[in-house]
């Protein structure tokens, strides 16, 4: 089991190790107190992984391991056996020399440098324990760098402690800058995506308006087609009814023609059977009557041999007509 030497402190918060501040190790090998390990894990962004403040190696809260210390051999046994006010006074009495023994200076004139180093360490501990602005962390980091640059010949232990503090502050600043850059990039990407989303929504709105317009035109065309179909069916019915109304008149007009043709054929057949000349038409009969009346009108004139034969012709004509009509009646069905 390990033991602690007096003055062993956490390299991050400068808190002295003891029963109330037990050292813990991370996978990279650096030793921190439990409070610093948990604060590093809690302050890390969810999308990032906690890193060691010294070597920047990644670790998780499950990787933190407790270092078991034998406090009986480290000078803490008497303190644990005491209680109440005696224990508190003992701790207070021993804390001051131990904190002073962390930076042993040989030169008697180096008290000012030691006080400045202690002040800087206290500032680093406060910055690590609470949330500070970037300006405060940057100012403290610059102070540490200036002190390390101007006091290069100081104690090596003091320089190493302040160098680790400066590295911690530098890591904090780098994490902040990385976070700010990532935030800016994320905001830029978000703005770009929002612009694209607005353009897409505008396009969708236009397409929906065009779709509604085309649907209205489609419905209008459907109504026009239905109206045209109704009108076409109405005209079709009207034409069919007109054709049905005009079709019966044609056989009635054609029937007399067929009957007259039949009568003419019968009369012609009868005339051919009995060798009788066909009956003169009404026009020819009228012409003959007119000619007879003209001949009668000329009776006052001197008679001629031709006039002597005319009455016999007229007297015979009705007889022949009556005989012909009686024969036609007899032969007709």
UniProtKB/TrEMBL annotation:
GO molecular function, one term: zinc ion binding
Alphabetically ordered keywords of this record: Coiled coil, Metal-binding, Zinc, Zinc-finger
InterPro entries: E3_ubiquitin-ligase_RING (IPR052667), Znf_RING (IPR001841), Znf_RING/FYVE/PHD (IPR013083)
Start-end of Low complexity biased regions: 239-257
UniProt domain RING-type: residue ranges: 10-56
Start and end residues of each stretch annotated as Disordered: 239-272, 288-333
Gene3D superfamilies to which the protein is assigned, alphabetical: Zinc/RING finger domain, C3HC4 (zinc finger) (3.30.40.10)
SUPFAM superfamilies per the UniProt record, alphabetical: RING/U-box
Residue runs in coiled coils: 190-231
Skewed-composition ranges (Polar residues): 312-333
Superkingdom in the source lineage: Eukaryota
The keyword Aminoacyl-tRNA synthetase is assigned to this record: no
PANTHER family referenced in this protein's UniProt entry, alphabetically: E3 UBIQUITIN-PROTEIN LIGASE TRIM-21-RELATED, PROTEIN CBG20824
Protein known as: RING-type domain-containing protein
